[in-house]
């Protein structure tokens, strides 16, 4: 780390210092106003063979250093593993005074007062950040405390505040220092468990991503909880277990993080290869941990090198790779990638800065900002999850509407099939007797000159109407066309206009055509006319004074699109939804068969028809056919 350029080191220091302003302000709020902060103390390095005996402070050959900067540990000499700290207590005016050391680094710590050892702490594991609250007496005012601390990690001394005040107030301060870490970490663990339970109810492709996400959140929660001094201060007997949980969480985090990004950002194959390597390396570190525990931790230095130094470098490399990948996807306009890259960049910049600064200072830095980066990253993940849930909800609503539409179409198809079968079986049997009856009535009408002739004329008209209905039934039952040819839409509509214009004129309306000559479709001319005569006839019957029916057509994406719009009475939504149903009509003598046949003819020509209408405004029919050729 000595070869790191000074400019890079300075930049990282500036980043960490700027980010730590919020933490410092928060820590300042934890200090009650009536507590007294001891501004400075003295420190000297211990000898190689010192064992923490108070007689060692009488050695006049040792030089004491005056310490006023409580934000950074001194670099200790390479062959020194202990140090002495000398602190003069201020005036103690509280009924139950105490002194609180925010951070004392050391594995073995002993405090002396009045030449007597009155506090001693030894940790048989490698977590050496100690928060110590010591009760005092009012008569201890002005006395000098001697603190001996020993470490194998090259981290000795005091960082942070040394405060005196009432014991109960300082106890509350001690709890508040780290309770936020416990709450934050526990929240992440709870969220991970919820995600884990929910993942078992998902399909296999989604399950893999949710499992990786729950592993990420779970490992982050465990790391926040087990890295916090809270557990080591109040439940110190389980300290070795906390460290093992922290290492296991870190081993899980790296491959899970890579796998999650691999599933969501699949544009870089390097992520997949790096994830496989991280999985293998995490398994190797986990095996090293088991071997080290089995060897009574005699392999601590080797294990520390692989699980902290190398793993930390791999974590920085992974962060850089994932930031690059997510930013690359975000630049392509992927909204989820934008959210993910923003949250992860916030997490990665803080983590890379703190890890780099930790290695630059040879471990003489207490990392605390990374958990806020984690908080921002998890918020981004939750935002993505919420976005996906919202999208799934929209899909469910859309699928529900489509299902309702398909269900209605299925019911309509079933009705059409029943009517088709009925029409095919009945129409031929009924038509023959009707034709015979009509023939005899015509003969009778020629011989009748009296009043009965009018009755015979009415009977013939009703027989013709019955025959037309039977024809509609037959058209519906067997809409296949015996002869199909290429139809020029303009020519067909000119013929339709000639047939239907007199009826429009009687209603006080007019018909206008705006159809290009070149639009052509395949079909049967008579059936084509029959379908559109039915549509236009309905429009005519709905016209009011100065009514107008406008017919226009154009080609769109290989389809001939025909619009028929009138300014008649219009229909409400309920009536519009039932168009084409058999026996449904809003006319007095209507049977509903005309529109039913129209729908069937258009369907047989591979066309589609839709209606839009508003009451009092008019109705517009839109028909699409494949263009001929």
From TrEMBL:
PROSITE patterns in alphabetical order: HIS_KIN (PS50109)
InterPro entries in the record: HATPase_C_sf (IPR036890), HATPase_dom (IPR003594), His_kinase_dom (IPR005467), HisK_dim/P_dom (IPR003661), HisK_dim/P_sf (IPR036097), Sig_transdc_His_kin-like_C (IPR004358)
Enzyme Commission number, as recorded: 2.7.13.3
Signal peptide, first to last residue: 1-27
Classification via SMART domains: HATPase_c, HisKA
Entry GO MF terms: ATP binding; phosphorelay sensor kinase activity
Coiled coil (UniProt feature): 389-416
Transmembrane segments: 182-203, 210-235, 241-261, 277-296, 302-325, 337-360, 372-390
SUPFAM superfamilies for the chain: ATPase domain of HSP90 chaperone/DNA topoisomerase II/histidine kinase, Homodimeric domain of signal transducing histidine kinase
Catalytic reaction equation(s): ATP + protein L-histidine = ADP + protein N-phospho-L-histidine
EC class of the enzyme, as a word: transferase
Keyword terms of this UniProt record: ATP-binding, Coiled coil, Kinase, Membrane, Nucleotide-binding, Phosphoprotein, Signal, Transferase, Transmembrane, Transmembrane helix, Two-component regulatory system
Ranges for domain Histidine kinase: 425-629
Annotated PANTHER family: C4-DICARBOXYLATE TRANSPORT SENSOR PROTEIN DCTB, SENSOR HISTIDINE KINASE
Entry protein name: histidine kinase
Species in which this protein is naturally found: Paenibacillus polymyxa
């Amino acid at each position: 780390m000595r070869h790191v350029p000074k400019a890079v080191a300075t930049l990282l220091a500036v980043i960490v210092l700027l980010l730590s302003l919020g933490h410092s302000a928060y820590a300042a709020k934890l200090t009650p106003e009536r507590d007294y902060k001891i501004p400075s103390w003295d420190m000297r390095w211990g000898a190689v063979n010192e064992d923490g005996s108070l007689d060692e402070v009488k050695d006049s050959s040792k030089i004491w250093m005056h310490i006023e900067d409580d934000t950074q540990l001194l670099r200790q000499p390479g062959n020194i593993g202990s140090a002495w700290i000398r602190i003069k207590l201020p005036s103690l005016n509280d009924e139950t005074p105490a002194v609180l050391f925010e951070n004392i680094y050391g594995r073995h710590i002993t405090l002396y007062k009045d030449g007597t050892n009155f506090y001693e702490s030894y940790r048989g594991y490698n977590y050496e950040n100690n928060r110590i609250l010591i009760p005092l007496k009012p008569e201890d005012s002005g006395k000098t405390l001697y603190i001996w601390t020993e470490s194998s990690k090259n981290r000795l001394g005091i960082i942070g505040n040394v405060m005196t005040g009432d014991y109960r107030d300082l106890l509350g301060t001690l709890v508040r220092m780290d309770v936020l870490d416990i709450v934050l970490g526990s929240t992440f663990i709870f969220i991970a468990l919820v995600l884990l339970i929910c993942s078992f109810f998902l399909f296999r492709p989604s399950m893999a991503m949710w499992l990786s996400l729950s592993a990420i959140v779970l490992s982050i929660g465990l790391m926040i909880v087990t890295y916090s001094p809270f557990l080591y201060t109040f439940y110190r007997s389980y300290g070795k277990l906390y460290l093992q949980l922290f290492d296991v969480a870190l081993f899980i985090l790296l491959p899970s993080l890579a796998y999650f990004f691999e599933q969501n950002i699949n544009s870089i194959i390097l992520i997949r290869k790096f994830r496989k390597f991280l999985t293998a390396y995490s398994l190797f570190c986990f095996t090293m941990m088991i071997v080290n525990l089995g060897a009574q931790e005699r392999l601590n230095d080797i294990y520390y090198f692989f699980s902290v130094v190398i793993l930390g470098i791999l974590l920085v490399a992974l962060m850089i790779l994932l930031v690059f990948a997510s930013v690359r996807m975000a630049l392509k306009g992927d909204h989820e990638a934008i959210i993910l890259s923003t949250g992860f960049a916030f997490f990665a910049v803080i983590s890379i800065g703190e890890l780099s600064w930790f290695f630059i200072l040879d471990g003489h830095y207490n990392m605390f900002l990374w958990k806020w980066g984690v908080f921002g990253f998890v918020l981004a993940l939750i935002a993505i999850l919420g976005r996906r849930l919202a999208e799934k909800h929209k899909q469910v609503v859309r699928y529900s509407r489509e299902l309702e539409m398909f269900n209605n179409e299925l019911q309509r198809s079933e009705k059409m099939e029943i009517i088709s079968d009925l029409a095919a079986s009945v129409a031929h049997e009924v038509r023959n007797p009707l034709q015979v009856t009509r023939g005899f009535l015509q003969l009778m009408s020629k011989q009748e000159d009296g009043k009965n002739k009018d009755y015979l004329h009415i009977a013939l008209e009703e027989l013709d109407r019955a025959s037309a209905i039977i024809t509609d039934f037959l058209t519906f039952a067997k809409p296949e066309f015996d002869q199909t040819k290429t139809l020029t839409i303009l020519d067909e509509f000119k013929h339709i206009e000639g047939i239907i214009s007199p009826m429009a004129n009687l209603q006080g309306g007019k018909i206008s055509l705006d159809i290009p000559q070149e639009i052509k479709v395949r079909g049967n001319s008579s059936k084509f006319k029959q379908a559109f005569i039915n549509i236009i006839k309905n429009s005519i019957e709905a016209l009011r004074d100065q009514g107008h029916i406008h017919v226009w057509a154009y080609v769109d994406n290989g389809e001939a699109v025909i619009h028929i719009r009138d300014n008649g009475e219009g229909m409400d939504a309920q009536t519009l939804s039932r168009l084409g149903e058999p026996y449904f009509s809003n006319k007095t003598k209507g049977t509903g068969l005309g529109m039913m046949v129209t729908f069937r003819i258009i369907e047989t020509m591979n066309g589609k028809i839709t209606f839009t209408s508003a009451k009092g405004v008019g109705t517009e029919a839109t028909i699409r056919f494949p263009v001929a050729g």
